[in-house]
Amino acid sequence: MRDNRLVRQRLSQVTLADGTAVSYASVGEGRPLVYVMGWLTHLELGWELPAERALYEALARGCRLVRYDRAGSGLSPATNRPASLAFELEQLAAIAATLDEPFDLMGTSMGAPVAVAWAATHPETVRRLVLYGGWVRGDELSSPGVRENVLGLIESHWGLGSDVLTDIFAPDADRSTRAELARYQRACSSAVTARELLALSYRLDVSDLLGQVRAPTLVVHRTGDRAAPVAQAEALAAGIDGAQLVLLPGRSHLPYAGERDELVRVVRRFLGLPVARRRADGLTARQREVAELVSEGRTNREIATRLGIDERSAEGHVERIRLRLGFRSRAQIAAWWRDQLG
């Protein structure tokens, strides 16, 4: 089996005209897929999170996945420039300039309206556009009171604020995984930057740009997303001519939290990239991951932590594997997996 530790991301940096430095990472080879990430990111720490890394590796098969830390987040140094859509587009322009060819563009969460703005104003650069967990108007994500409370909490108590936001972003993850994600957010940026970028996400409004998007577009969203109401996905799809809307089950806003396999399949199919077929044994890619971990003697809690899902989901996967293969115990699943390895 492939050893994921052999997969390496290539780190580099670009500099804007005013001297702002933006760090970016590339994984894989082939046609570029530029991935505009959400609120707070860290190219190195995110790569160390098993669930997040698994998402990037799955997307990068057969193409070159390019992601970057926006200024003040992760490996990109802090800046005195205020957060704005124009500044976001400058950073994306610097990344695009390294490619010298049209690319597929995927925006997630806050990155989705940024990707819309880019596709609308630079149509010649975008082959296909994917929007996950995005919105048209940030001021419709929640009530003004809720927004002010969240921003105030980040400013006054970044630790508690990161905990609250993680509960919203990844409710399907178990407690230990949510704690890890909260620590990850705090490691990505200062409280000042976190507040400023979240405030920008609430200000973003691309309603006047949707009609200018010409690239074939996929809008994909989880129906129970607590951070971005599904109505925003419907508005995105309705405003972009010919856009496809795919709604997936789940509550997590983070694309790598919860069930990510179907999300990857939907995105890769739309981009024209090979999609893994279901194996003759009838197990999904996620179920085969679980079966491998069962063979290692992992408990449901350990499986959940490893895959970034909650313990009940892990238990459900084990039960479905057992039923699919006609087994009565975890020991039989483990023995079957070892036989598969030959």
UniProtKB/TrEMBL annotation:
Residue ranges annotated for the HTH luxR-type domain, each copy included: 276-341
One GO biological process term: regulation of DNA-templated transcription
InterPro entries, sorted: AB_hydrolase, AB_hydrolase_1, AB_hydrolase_fold, Sig_transdc_resp-reg_C-effctor, Tscrpt_reg_LuxR_C, WH-like_DNA-bd_sf
Molecular functions per Gene Ontology: catalytic activity; DNA binding
Annotated protein name in UniProt: Pimeloyl-ACP methyl ester carboxylesterase
Organism the protein comes from: Asanoa ferruginea
